[in-house]
Structure formats: C-alpha cells, structure tokens
Structures
1.
Amino acid sequence: MIPFSKPFLTGKETKYIEEAVASGKISGNGMFTQKCQTFFEEKYGIKKALLTTSCTDALEMCAILLNINDGDEVIMPSYTFVSTANAFVLRGAKIVFADSGDNEPNINVHKIEDLITPKTKAIVVVHYAGVACDMDVVMELAKKYNLFVVEDAAQAIESFYKGKALGSIGHLATFSFHETKNIISGEGGLLAINDEQFIERSEIIWEKGTNRSAFFRGEVDKYGWVDVGSSFLPSEVIAAFLWAQLENLDKIQAQRKKLWDKYYTEIEKYIEKENFVLPIIPEYATNNGHMFYLVCQSMEQRSNLISKLKKNGYMAVFHYLSLHKSSFFKDKHDGRELENCDKYADRLVRLPLFYELEEQTLESLLSIIYKN
Ligand SMILES: Cc1ncc(COP(=O)(O)O)c(C=O)c1O
C-alpha cells in the first residue's frame, strides 16, 4: 500500500539526539531548543519563537496569553482541526465559526466583519495546505475593532503572504511538527510571538508559570511561581530531532514542491475528463508543497475515487469534518449555514504526498484515476 504520508528522516536525527544525551542536558530549553528557535526568528522575522510539544499546546498558550475568559468570542473557520477551537474552548470562549471561501478552504476574510460583536476578542485564521489567507484584510479588521489575530500556521512552514512569512504577521502564530507535516519531530510545535507585549509572559506560561527562563539568564536571583502556566516546552531530545530536519528544510521543500507541481500539471491535462477542481494559489500567496488536494463534484465522486485508489494500493484521504456540525458543538452553533465549509468536508480529497514518493508511483496513481 502506498501511504498517504510517510515521515522522512534526514539521517542526522539520531546523531543529534546522541549529542543532546551526551551533553547531559536533556530537559527543555537547551542548545538544540535555542538553535531551532533562533532559526525561526532569523529566517522568518518572528520576534520570539518558543518550541512547544505540539501545535495544540502552542494554541493553548495563545488562549492564555490573550486572557480569553468566559463568554469572550473568538472567530475562526469551521473547516479546521479540533485543536484550533479546543484551545479557546478550554478557557471558556464562545467560538463563532466562519465559512470558507467559494474557491478556497481558508476562512472567507470578507465575511468576518459581519461576525464581530463587542464581545469579540480574537480572530484565528488557518492557512490551509500552507496557502495564505488574505492577511491584509484580517489585520485591517483587527486594527479597526481592536482585536488580536492568531495565525494557525500548523501546515504553513516556509510559505509567504506578499513576501512576508506566514506565522510572522498575526500578533501570535503556531506551527506543527507532527509527523505528517513537512518538517517533523514526531509530535512538536512552535509558538511565534510577533507582538512584543506578549514575550515576557509567554516564557513564564511556557515554564509552568515560573520565571525560570529569566533566572537562567541571570535576570533574577531566584525563581518562583508568578503566573498560570503549564509544561509546554519539549525536551532537548525532540529539539535535537527537529534541528536535523530544519537543517534540511530547502531540500525537503524542493522535493515536495516538485511532486506537487507534477500532480498539478498532470491532472490539469485531464481536467475535462473528471471535472475535479484544482487548488488555487492566489497571487499574494505561495505554495509550500504541504498538501495536494482535489475538490470533487460530489461526495459520491470522492468516495468512488478513494475506493478505486485503495483497491489499487494507494491511500487517498479526506480531511476535516465541519466543526459547527460536530457532536460536541452542534447544539452550541447559532444555526448559520456554512455551505463552503460543508463542501470541503464532503468533497475534498488529499492524494499521497511525501518526500520519498517516486514520480513513477505518482504517475501510476494518476493512470488509475484516468483509466477508462
Ligand atoms: C490547522 C491545524 N491546527 C492544529 C493542528 C494540531 O497540530 P498538533 O498535532 O501539532 O497539535 C493541526 C494538526 O494537524 C492542524 O491541521
């Protein structure tokens, strides 16, 4: 069976883990953690980067940093992973789900303003498949209504909006290094802080509510409990693994984009035959080769495609289910139809895409789709 996703190892992961172990410092915030954080700060213009044990954890840190409380409203797309919403629900937020665009799974930024009320505190955008949301529109709204913006950039490493790195635009942003992402550490994530007012407190929340980071820098003579927090920082073992991946970012990205381009050009040739809708990369956005998806004409067409590929040894998979219709949330939703979100939940399918996928395998997969 050709899997949908397969972790790629650069070969240096265990070497760096051995180095971390040999150094005698394997808890968090050591040399490899610093290297990874500096990489994000310098390469992407992020003011402060903190490694976390997952993107879920980074999102939970955002909700704490923004002081989300009972009844605060947070606007976000319904077409996203549960963690985007859960992080804010945990702090008592009322989630106001927004629809996707007509031509993109991303939140329809032109419909956000209608959802803003005096209780709105934040807008969370998700750069689906690593393709940017139209951030100028979102940041303008945030300024007008005095709101915070969180970019869920779980899938968006090395992708840009009008030349600016995704994750460097919102007040806060989060990345994922789960094994299904472009750059991985098994489980792992990163919090990006672009608004300086959050930097000092973010380190405290990260270190169980203590000022331990400041203590190790020699800024205070003892450390203690100064705020709420949790254990959000990963061990050096995880950071060492991640560093081996980041060192190979360019190589990994080039290969994933090559495969993505091949899917696109091949499927475009046959577009009349099956009528799939191809992904659109707006002129303000870039493609980071995270995911190749198609939108089918119906759920039935998608089911047939998935089972045909499965019968021939290829895993293709659908993605998110509409969160506003989930068993947890359906009674809390205000009843608005979110048609585009439902369309992507019902009809979007993702094809296998991973570093070691051979072009020949990709061609054989496509010949199964277009056979007959
Ligand atoms: C948009 C989005 N946000 C958050 C997450 C959670 O990431 P993690 O598994 O690192 O917690 C995911 C997971 O795939 C995701 O797709």
2.
Amino acid sequence: MDFSLTDDQRLIRDTVRQFMDAEVRPNIRARDREETFASAELRKLGDLGCCGMLIPESQGGAGADTISYVLMLEEVARVDAAMSVALSVTNSLATFAIAQYGTESQRHKYLSRLARGEILGAFCLTEPQAGSDAAAIATSATGHRNTYRLNGTKSWVTNGGEAGLYIVFAKTETPASARGVTAFLVEPSFPGFRVARYEDKMGLRTSRSAEITFSDCEVPEGSRLGEEGQGLKIALELLDGGRVGIAAQAVGIAQGALEASAAYAKQRRAFGKTIGDFQSIQWMLADMQTEIEGARALVQNAAWLRDESMRDKSRNKSRDQGARRIGPLASRAKLYAGEMVNRVVYKAGQIHGSLGYSRESDVERMYRDARVITIYEGTSEVQRVIIARDLLK
Ligand SMILES: Cc1cc2nc3c(=O)[nH]c(=O)nc-3n(C[C@H](O)[C@H](O)[C@H](O)COP(=O)(O)OP(=O)(O)OC[C@H]3O[C@@H](n4cnc5c(N)ncnc54)[C@H](O)[C@@H]3O)c2cc1C
C-alpha cells in the first residue's frame, strides 16, 4: 500500500494552492461581504483544467484521476468554500454526466466548453416539496412532437443564474413512479426557463443558489440525457461521485480553519504567554488535525475506489464478478467529513475568542460555510441510511 501522491497529483495540488493563496485569498472577505460570485476566478481555474477534471483529454477534459480531483477541491475549499461547490457541481454533476450518459452530439456540443470553464454546469433535482425524497419530484415533461415541455419549480440550484447548462430531472410518466424520472439538458435561453429568485443563505454567500421555474419550457428531444425513465438512476449515480467531492470540500474548509487557528495560537497572548502554550488550546488543535487526517484518508480512499469502479464499468465487469461500488464508501466519507468539519470550525472559533465571532476573521466565514455540508448532496441522516442498508444487506 502506497499512500504517496504521484508527481502529477502533487503538481495539481501545488498549482491550485498557489493560485488560491495568491489570487483568491486577498479578496475573499470583501467578496463574501459583497456576495460577489467568483466568475473571473473560476474562469482562471477553468484555464488550469479544473472544470473538466474527470473527463478524458480526447473529450476536452483534463483526464485526471479522482485523487487529483479531490486534491483540487480541497485546495480550493481551504480558501473559498463557495468556489469549491461551484467546481464540484460543474465537474461531478454536470460535465461528468454528459461524458458518461450523453450522446456523441451532446458531448460535442457541451463538453469542451464546460471543461474549459467557458460555461458552468448546474444540477436541478431538488424541489420545494422534494429534497431527500428525490422520487417525489413533481416537475413534469410532456412529449409534444419532437419537443418536451417542462413544467415545475427547482430549488436550491447551485450555479443557478450563472450556469450555461442545467441538468434537469422531470417526470415523463403520468403515474408518479421513480422510474418515470428523466434527465434533460436545458440551456437558459430555452423559452420558458426563468430564474425566479436567489436564496438568502447563512453561508456560501458568494455561491448562487437559485429557484428556477419551467413554464412550458421547450426542450428538444435531442436534449434528453439518457433514456426516458433512467433519470433517477443517473441522478443517484452522479451523487455517489458528487459526495466524494463534497467530502473533499469539508476537508479543505477544516484544513483552512486549522491553519488559521494554529497561526493565531502562536501569536495571541494571554496571561503572559501565547495561547498555544495552554494545554486546552493544544488539545483542540491536536484533535482538529487528527480528525482532518482521518477524513482525508476516507476521502482519498473513496476517490481511489471511484476510479477502480469506473474501470470495472468500462470492462463491463458485473457485481457478481466483483465490480466495486463507490456508493456506501462515498457516503461514509461524506458523513464523517461533513460532521468532522463542523466540529473543527467550532473549535477554530473557540481558539479565536471574540475574533472568531467577527467578520474580520476567516474562521467566522468558515463556520457559516461548513454548516451546509451535513445537508446538501444528501443529509447525514440519508448517508447513514445508505451505509446501514449496505452493512445489513
Ligand atoms: C446551499 C445549498 C445548495 C444546494 N445545491 C443543490 C443543487 O445544486 N441541486 C439540487 O438539486 N439540490 C441542491 N440542494 C438541495 C439539497 O440537496 C437538499 O436540501 C437536501 O437533499 C435535503 O433536502 P431537504 O432540504 O428537502 O430536506 P428534507 O428532505 O425535507 O429533510 C428534512 C430532515 O428530515 C430528514 N430525513 C428526510 N428523509 C429521511 C429518511 N429517510 N431517514 C431519516 N431522516 C430523513 C433529513 O435528514 C433532514 O434532517 C442544495 C441545498 C443547499 C442548502
């Protein structure tokens, strides 16, 4: 067993770290306050290959492995969690979706633009009345000559209003069955597409979370992703991969909070010493670092397994032949990392004293940003359901 990174993986990690420290860190507090979406910064990361990491070079992507991908997301989240969720959605839930399930013409039309970061992708599954219970979505898609008409409302769409392509899940059968869910590639210029409003969130203030309505939105038949009725399977498979990215985001935020806390502990003085001389502070830092390393190991293990399961899939290896499944391990990584980062940012705030409660500190923003990780791309409770179901089967 070799835990060391390859030269390529190290290069990707160091390049992204350098970019984030030099070009994003100096403005992050101001951008958070002004809620400015990081369009220019994301374009630059697109130029570095960070928007299409999981797709082959032959399709315009970086052709990187999933370990490189999670290293990239961790480095981005270490400085700016909102940028990391934009990248996670565009890579795992949009670009990869087209590479995996798209037709030749859909790949040709969208992949290289997505991979270069010219357009961002978005994933529209959640609705006001259906989050964890994805099969309960009500958005409908009715066939009409060579066009579908979509009607319904999608909520909490990350990159909503900024993206150039939306993967939209809608019911194509009249009976409300899970099998009736179908995926579509929708462009914001399609008639009937409308960004209705943006959520006013606790954290990730520079990320966009939009409510989008579809009113007789016309989608050509050629923009259906996969077959009719395949949508829920596509969504759940994409979320398995997506969760590894969100777990990496958690590790990145936690690492940023640890670094800020260790630096502050060496500088802040109380009772004639630096606070880092107090055992209470040392123990918090030691626990933070240990938990981060545990989560990172789970994330990188899940990333490695994702590549193995993709190889099994490309060899058409079946479950009976030992094909590996990423789902439960992705859930364990996301569950642990999501809960870990909330413990870490709590301690980071404690170490910073009142400064940790001030918008003058980075750890205050990290505290708000981390909260969502136990909620999106499947709550902690849903991850436990997936893990326990696998354990007891
Ligand atoms: C910032 C942000 C960005 C998001 N981005 C996107 C996006 O890009 N695309 C998208 O489609 N969605 C997105 N979401 C939506 C997100 O994925 C859902 O909010 C999430 O899946 C939870 O759904 P819900 O909010 O409806 O909660 P509910 O499903 O209503 O859950 C409420 C509570 O009940 C619990 N619960 C529900 N079912 C079970 C069960 N079976 N067993 C045990 N407990 C259960 C939950 O764990 C939770 O504690 C985003 C959300 C946020 C906050």
